[in-house]
Amino acid sequence: MSGDGTTFVRETLTPARKAPVVTTGFIGFLHTRLFNSPLNIALTFASAALLWFVLEPTIRFLLIDAVWKGSDRTACLADKAGHPVGACWPFIQAKFTQLIYGFYPDDQRWRANLTFALAALLLAPLLVPKIPGKTLNAALFFVAFPFLAFFLLRGGGLDGFAFYWLAEPFGAAWKPSLTRFWIDFSLTTTVVTAAVIWLWGGWPNGRRAGLSSALTFAGIAIVIVALRLGQGGLPVVDTRLWGGLLVTLVVSITGIVASMPVGIALALGRTSRIPLLRIFSVTFIEFWRGVPLITVLFFATYMLPLFLPGDFTIDALVRVLVGIALFAGAYNAEVIRGGLLAIPRGQREAANALGLSYWKTTGLIVLPQALRHVIPALVNSFIALFKDTTLVLIVSLFDLLGQLRAAFADPTWATPTTLFTGFAFTGIIYWVGCFAMSRYSLFVERRLNAHRRT
Amino acid sequence: MTTDPIIRVETLNKWFGDFHVLRDIDLAVARKERIVICGPSGSGKSTLIRCINALEEFQEGKIVVDGIELGPNLKRVDEVRREIGMVFQSFNLFPHLTVLENCTLAPIWVRNMPKKDAEAAAMKYLERVRIPEQADKYPGQISGGQQQRVAIARALTMNPKVMLFDEPTSALDPEMVKEVLDTIVDLANDGMTMIVVTHEMGFAREVANRVVFMDAGQVIEVNTPEEFFGHPKHERTKLFLSQILR
User: Fold this and answer.
1) Hey, of A372, A451, A453, A454, which one would you mutate to test binding to chain B, going by the most B CBs within 10 A of its CB?
2) What ipTM does this complex have?
3) pTM for the full model?
4) Does the CB of B110 have a partner CB in chain A at under 8 Å?
């Protein structure tokens, strides 16, 4: 090196060296994060002590002092067990089916199990990015599965398919029969497929769309035959008999899935330049956000029937589902609007300049970016919704927590620790659900925001 | 050169609220002509070219692009935009899409081109702006100069008849200005009609057929680069040139 203080010219470049050991690895972690100053050392020990005071009694209660076998309350009493009693797991064993299915009839439980299995089978590949066929998979889960789940869980069949209601205005009484059902079905298939081909630019351009339509109807036909929907279907299980985890999952998954389109539509409406649309969205959002969920559920359950015509009834569970979807949708709308506002104006302009229409710009450029920005906030409201579903208890739907409270009333299992055991069990179920959502959202965030890592 | 104009702007007037930003603008651009618009900031240069592809509404006058008339109600926006490519000061690449996806988006969704053909065409344009090797990167992973060249390629994929450049080098580090200007010069040499808003006077001298000087929402002077830089007529032009050319 040379220089007299005012000028300097480097002669050899310094090569990169490894970082000093004390700053990396486990030792480095201990050095720099846990024991690097008196205050930090004190905090480290205080935290360790706190952890011990929380974990030790929990483990003692749940595992060490717990009773694992027994047929009634006596097994969980201290003088019988010979030691202080922690969790009374036989209580959960005895009430397990109730906690999962509610009062869903024993001999029909395979339907709930099949629905759970189908949901898992369709959802799992949807969550793993590497597995191909996402469009078909999503269509099956979001469109086909809800119908299938409805006929599986609730049961019942169809009188006709799509055109049978036309019979009445034309003066013919529709007497349901299998032949008529299939005639109606074939007619629907033909009309819809023809319409699809025409909409996609006629023959031969609409060939592929027409084929998809025909295949879709073939799939529907298979389900109809399998569930015998033309002949009355499976025995109806009234939704009042549903309960436990089944209701919790039905309400929360439907709520989460249905609230997204509602939220996106409202957010776009609120940021729209059309005044009427904007006013409607603002009013809608402010109304639903301003009302407690309990009020919404109450209104949907007890007030709505008063406004509807006498012979027109909607299932109680359906009313609750609609109420929750709209309520959660209003919250999502504001979250998504936050994401929309974060997108620079230049993005829309660039897309417009390329000739993309409003909807294509929104769907391909604005929304994908906006939703990525708000994944943490959206998952936050999904988690809140998952736990809020327990409020359906006040309109006499027994979700997981509702079933648990019902189980507490059983004198056969009245012991000092029954309450704690029950809440510990349901708490773990809720926690696993929420934690899974949280971790998965982190994974999605990291994957979708790959472009932000430079 | 004004016998067969591809763009005609006639007595264009535009207000932002009460502010009269464009006043009686008349401008005709011939096929293959290269116009450079310069002027102090706030003079309405960007607003003018944004009006030409309907990113801004205007209140009076009309714009005719290749026979398609754009009046104050902007009815034929989509047709006009199909004729025009635009490059922005801040690139405006889509950050969630790769470079290649940025370039295939419009051909696929606007022109209904099959994905394979769109990708092949996009690679051709990326080669033309000399960055085919960056095709699979995201915009955030490449330099500003490269991003702007991708933006140029993206606009070209729609086969525009006219290219608009809105201060294409103003947001770039000095080291990267040249690579972008070179790309634009290449494009000019291939016969592309273009309107460029820029402060790069060297570029204007080299490429422009005519230089348009704007101030306070009006066209002050239009001339060939030689005359414009050599013998500016208007006082305002002389003042402007004396301030930017030292």
Assistant:
1) A451
2) 0.90
3) 0.84
4) yes
